[in-house]
Amino acid sequence: MKDSNFLKENNARHFWHPMTSPAFSRANPPKIITGSHGVYIRDIDGHEAVDAVGGLWNVNLGYSCAPVKAAIAAQLDTLPYYSTFRGTTNDAVIELSYELARFFEPDGLSRAFFTSGGSDSVETALKLARQYHKLRGEPGRIKFLSLKKGYHGTHFAAASVNGNANFRAAYEPLMPGCYHIPAPYTYRNPFNESDPARLAQLCAAALEDEIAFQGASTIAAFIMEPILGAGGVIPPHPTFLPMVRDICDRHGILLITDEVITAYGRTGAWSGARLWGVKPDMMCTAKAITNGFFPFGAVMIGAKVVEAFEKDETGTIGHGYTYSGHPVGAAAALACLAETERLNVVDNAAARGTQLYEGCKALMARHDLIGDVRGGHGLMTAIELVSDRATKRPAGGDVTTIVQEAAYQAGAMVRVSGPHVILSPSLILSKAEAAIILSALEAGLTAAEAAA
């Protein structure tokens, strides 16, 4: 490995970073992370911080999860790669498919299609949804509905169902036939409705209205995150997803839950669908499936889709990735699933999530920069920064940058997205480590207020 001077000199010079401007990265070189242990990361200058981002929502078991590392090493020694395209498979992926069917049985999901990550999983689910309707003799069902503020990845189809212009505008025109309804976002919504239960009803009615306008016979699927993540941690009222499930059933529309973030315990339940008591037709997963140690994902598939594809050989899937069912990824996922269940991380996610949520509410009482705090369902918490509480005017980027940098220097890496500061730490986070995050956030808010 090159020395630190070489790394600093070449930082952001020879590759473009995702989700930022290359010019910004050159002018503001990103932090060089060189080490990790437990829930801590260490930069090139030796500064350590609690990783309140959890990698990128994916390092649920922390950075020192020995069983997953051992499984990867062992698989590399036996079968480092082989294709799962027609005619061949591998032992690890057979075992993983069995274990995932067991794990997701309460969600009504019994089959897996393996991918290389979250965007791949969304792309797969959307394609399978269209093919499902063709197999059933309804080829006109090609459209997709989703939520404004929702995030579903970066591929063209995934970006097309995204509900945030930041991920769309530079790449338009995107895939036709994708339409969006208002999200159940209590703090900001077009209905000016502050009651979450009433807002859920209004958003469900907007879904019904869009279906009527488009024509139910033209719609393949509705896709949503059970809790909107990148859009600012927006949990719907508990009645919303059950209403969506009923609407989709009445109109013959598939329901896809995008659980790239929410599956495997982050919400304080084993899946976001389970949190709200709903069984989807397909579920997109990735991220925590391998604890972030290997690029991997899985689309889990429910009974009616299974029936359409498996009743005869007309259900040929003309879709797949070179790394679908990669044996090293499958081995990592098996070890990760076993450790996730052994540690019963849902209980700690719920407890520490409550601690962070209540702690952020206490910060709101002391800092006028905070306009809203959202969370309360596992380790998914966000604070929305405003320059004026009365008008809800979002805080500028300089404010969030100050909060992020000061919090990091005070001991916690947090993520900023627009005016939101998002917390998604590992599910093994301790009470003391959660307190460090809250203390660091206080330092960040204080620094931003002093600079105003």
Looking at the structure, the CATH topology of the largest domain is Aspartate Aminotransferase, domain 2
DSSP helix fraction: 40-55%
In CATH, the architecture of the largest domain is 3-Layer(aba) Sandwich
Q: How many domains is the backbone divided into?
A: 2
- Name given to the CATH homologous superfamily of the largest domain: Type I PLP-dependent aspartate aminotransferase-like (Major domain)
Strand content: 15-25%
List the helices and strands and how they pair.
Layout: H1 4-10, H2 22-27, E1 33-37, E2 40-43, E3 48-51, H3 54-57, H4 66-78, H5 91-103, E4 109-115, H6 118-135, E5 143-147, H7 156-161, E6 178-181, H8 196-214, E7 219-224, H9 240-251, E8 254-258, H10 272-275, E9 282-285, E10 297-302, H11 303-310, H12 327-343, H13 345-366, E11 370-374, E12 381-388, E13 393-394, H14 397-409, E14 412-413, E15 415-417, E16 420-423, H15 431-451
